[in-house]
Write a structure and sequence with these properties.
The complex is a heterodimer of chains A (110) and B (249). Chain A is an all-alpha fold and 110 residues long. In chain A, 83% of the residues lie in helices and 0% in strands. Chain A has one domain. In chain A, helix 2 packs antiparallel against helix 3, helix 2 packs parallel to helix 4 and helix 3 runs antiparallel to helix 4. Chain B is α+β, with helices and mostly antiparallel strands and 249 residues long. Chain B is 49% helix and 19% strand. The N terminus of chain B is likely disordered. Classes of the chains: A mainly alpha (110), B alpha+beta (249).
Chain lengths: 110, 249
């Protein structure tokens, strides 16, 4: 319940504050969002599996975001930033799909 | 997502979900905060991606690629510009050449027109008045006078302001005077001649020349030099029937 409230509050804040993202952060934001999405879906799946632990969720959320940002940063330094961020998005996308599949099995039994 | 569907048979996962929806806990607060952050970032990113202009968040490599593309395009445009400028210069010079040729041709038309008698002419020359009170002037003497003028380099001649004398002009006897190109002219004859006034006057006045001949016929010649003599009579040009220009000359 609180999670849904948090979601709504975040959307409303984002819509009304229209924050300016610092230029140096711009390449990392989309990757960070995808990584956080992956963490959230993973947590939801764990919750349905009965193995959810809020400490694990916090750590995985933050580490996911940080690692994704670090990979992009490293890619930029190595000169393959565009390719590496594509790779990160692909990997996270696959994980999100498998998590959503597990959630779907829990909810729809299919 | 969490509210979707109530399953027919209750399982442990769905039980937990339902319980969590009914009774919030400390862990849910943390999850709510993090999910809120995620939503905030996602909305921001969506807004950012929506308003993005083309180059703002491109990477260095992509910018270099874009720059290379622009440079290639600008090189191509420069090539086009220089090509077009060359074409323009060629056209301009050909126009200039054509204008020059046209001017030359027009000048030639003027020159030939004066010689052929198709245009009025003006310039320094002399006016010769030949009086023939007894109507005894020999046509040959008059012709000799014209011939002397031609030898002296006359450029345009007219008689009595009516007939232009050119290469083809014919002279015939007539009871009333002379018939020049079919036009009957009566004395006194006024001959306007354009050329060097001194040379022309000298060509008529030498010993046993035109003046003496006319006076021998009982006539009288007066010659007046002028800085400006008008030859206003013209002829329509006649296309030659037999003679043809040799091509290529």
């Amino acid at each position: 319940m609180i999670a849904i409230i948090g979601l709504v509050v975040g959307v409303v804040l984002g819509l009304f504050l229209t924050p300016d993202v610092p230029l140096s952060m711009e390449p990392y934001l989309p990757i960070a969002v995808v990584a956080a999405l992956d963490a959230v879906f993973g947590a939801f799946r764990a919750f349905l599996d009965g193995i959810f632990d809020d400490k694990v969720f916090v750590v995985s959320f933050i580490s996911n975001v940080l690692i994704a940002a670090m990979i992009v940063f490293l890619g930029d330094k190595l000169g393959v930033g565009a390719q590496l961020s594509t790779g990160v998005v692909v990997v996270l996308g696959i994980r999100i799909f498998s998590n959503v599949a597990a959630i779907r099995r829990h909810i729809f039994h299919a | 997502m969490s509210e979707t569907g109530t399953p027919p048979r209750e399982r442990s996962g769905m039980d937990r979900l339902r319980r969590a929806l009914k009774s919030p806990s400390r862990g849910q607060a943390v999850v709510g905060v993090l999910v809120g952050i995620l939503a905030f970032a996602a909305v921001t990113q969506v807004r950012l991606a929506g308003k993005d202009d083309t180059y703002a968040n491109l990477r260095e490599a992509e910018l270099i690629q874009a720059l290379n593309g622009l440079q290639a395009a600008s090189r191509k445009a420069e090539r086009d510009i220089s090509d077009l400028e060359t074409t323009r210069d060629q056209l301009r010079s050909s126009t200039l050449r054509r204008t020059t040729a046209l001017e030359q041709a027009q000048k030639e038309v003027q020159t030939l027109g004066v010689l052929a008698g198709t245009v009025p002419a003006t310039g320094p020359g002399i006016t010769i008045t030949v009086e023939d009170p007894k109507n005894e002037l020999s046509l040959n003497h008059l012709l000799d006078g014209i011939e002397e003028l031609r030898n002296a380099g006359v450029e345009a001649v007219e008689i009595n302001d009516r007939v232009r004398v050119i290469a083809q002009t014919s002279f015939e006897e007539d009871p009333d005077g002379v018939r020049v190109d079919g036009v009957v002219l009566k004395p006194p004859y006024v001959i306007d001649a354009i050329g060097s006034p001194d040379t022309l006057a000298g060509a008529l006045q030498f010993q046993d020349g035109f003046t003496d001949d006319v006076e021998a016929d009982g006539g009288k010649v007066s010659i007046k030099k002028a800085d400006r003599v008008e030859v206003s009579a013209t002829r329509t040009p006649v296309k030659p029937r037999y003679a043809e220009a040799v091509p290529g000359q």
